[in-house]
Structure prediction request, 477 residues.
Amino acid sequence: MANRGNFSGRIGFILAAAGSAVGLGNIWRFPYLAGENGGAIFLLVYLCCIFLLCYPVMVGEIAIGRSAASDAFGSYSKLGGRKWGYLGLFGIIAGVLILSFYNVVAGWAFGYFLHISFGDLLSEQNFGTFFGTYVNDIIDLSSLGGLANSNLLFSLVFMVLTAVIVSQGIQKGIEASNKIMMPSLYIILVGIIVYSLTLPNAFSGVKFYLIPEFSELKIQTVVDGLKQAFFSLSLGMGALITYGSYLSKKENITSSAAVISIADTSVAFFAGLMVFPLVHFLAYKLNINPQEIGTSGPPLIFVVLPQIFHEMGPILGRIIGGSFFLLVCFAALTSTISLLEVPVAYLVDQKKMKRTTVVWLIALIIFVCGLPSMMSMGMIEWLNKLSFYRGQDFLTFIADMSDICLTVGGCLMCIFIGRRWGMANMDAELTHGNDRYMASGVRSYLHLTIKWIAPILLGFLSIVIIVEKFFGIENLF
Ligand code: PFF
Prediction:
């Protein structure tokens, strides 16, 4: 057991878990979902989901890991019997799926960082066309925007960086890298927000983002909010079981989970506070209505934001735009590390394989699994329009499947705690590092949520997402 590795203390654990949580989900997906779902009202729903539902699930997940001191499969098997181990395995497979497409998007962001900082992307005339060419042509080493373009290479570099860090182990790799990247990420984020708030028309964006319009509230808003909250906190697939397994018994799980949730939510919140003033600034510059700027969907940060950086002029645009994509890379890297650690911990713990060998092996497998996602942006026709998935592309398919895996995994995890492992065992685990836990109100709240509310709601959500995605009932409600 001694050679499994462990976090040096509370701060190391919190930074690593917050690093896992803060990722493309916060900076790439949260702002566009907020834009699609009415801005402030989505933010409100999202905050309710985080604190009413996701926080208890996070506490439960960390408690499982720390109690069993094993990987996702080992933890479920140890606490609930071998059959439950398959739930851990399901999580591990979900992690592999997520990392396969996540690394592709991270590679795009890394390429954009290089293109904006060192190439001449900002002098482009049409950012939509650039993005289309960029994601489509994965091995074009000829010059695009003044720089050799190959998002195959960029994704490979990203995966190699992830593998190098994970191969260094818990303290020297995961903890040390998060201790550098997380604070840097916050500094860049705050810097860009301060700057964006000084731009003309910025406060109209702030208003859209912060003043809720209750008439915009739909069930779809709640479904999107819950799905996003779950993905954003890295719940439901064993990442926090794995990280929790490296946490000392001295630490207080309930308060650490609160800090992690707040850290993650604040980055999502700040990402919105950065993006909406920028979008409204662009609307002002182009003399159009902000609604006319397509803020929906993945292209938000790859098409709309570069256009905004272009408007800032060649030098400032390069500095702000380069910093923005560096921020995205840091956020993505702290998450890819945690995604890779899940299968790695499984093979190290269960099969007694050497960490370094496992890391490179899994990284290679996942990279290869990501190729279809990468080639589904136009390069290969049938991957671009999957006939069994309503003509959507393969990357979207995998991303949607991941959402389903996380909510199903989360639902089953709550059932596991409530009906198999037992609330009493969870309480016993949470008492370590928190003597006052048994008499606290948090305990009743965790019990109510984990035993009843979360499994019912997550079960319902999983069914809604499956029906919605496979049968194309876009507006189910
Ligand atoms: N939480 C990450 C994000 O918001 O980008 C994504 C993620 C990382 C999901 C790790 C699941 C996970 F285990």
